[in-house]
Amino acid sequence: MNNAKNFVILLLSILVILQSIILFYLLRRPAPAVKRPSAVTRTGAKPGGRFPSVLPAEVKPMPPAGEEAPVPAAGKIALIIDDWGYSLKNKSIITDNNYHLTLAILPFQEYSQKVAELAHFHGKEVIIHMPMEPLHKEQYGLEANTLLTTMNASQIVHVLDKAFSEIPYAKGINNHMGSKATGDARMMRIVLGYLKDHDLFFVDSMTAPKSVARSVAKTLHEKFASRDIFLDNSSEPASIREQLMKLAHLSRQNGVAVGIGHDRPNTIAVLKEMIPLLQRQGYEFIEVSDAVKNP
Question: Is this structure's pTM higher than 0.90?
Answer without folding.
Answer: no
